[in-house]
Amino acid sequence: MNKNHHDTNGLSRRDFIKVSATGATALALTGMGALNATAAESTPQLPRRRYGRTGLQISALVGASDWNPEVIPLAVKAGVNYWHKAQKWTAETMPDAIKSQPRESYYLEVVVDRVGGDNKRGHIDEEQHYQFVKQAVAKSDVGYYDVFKFHFGYHSIEEAKTNLGVINAFERLKKEGLVKHLCISQHHYKDINGDMAFDIVAYLMDHSPFEAAQFFHTYGDEKQIADVIALAKQKDFGTIAMKTMRGLGRAGADDKFQALLAEPRYKGSTPGTAMVKWIMSNPNLTAAVIATKNFDQLQENLAAAHAATLSMNDRHSLDLLAAFNKGQTCLLCSACVTRCPEEIAIADILRYERYALDYHELSRARAEYKTLTKNGTACIACGDCMPACKEDINIIAKLKQVHNLLG
Ligand code: SF4
Ligand code: SF4
Question: Which of 117, 82, 45 lies closest to 306, judged by CA?
Answer without folding.
Answer: 45
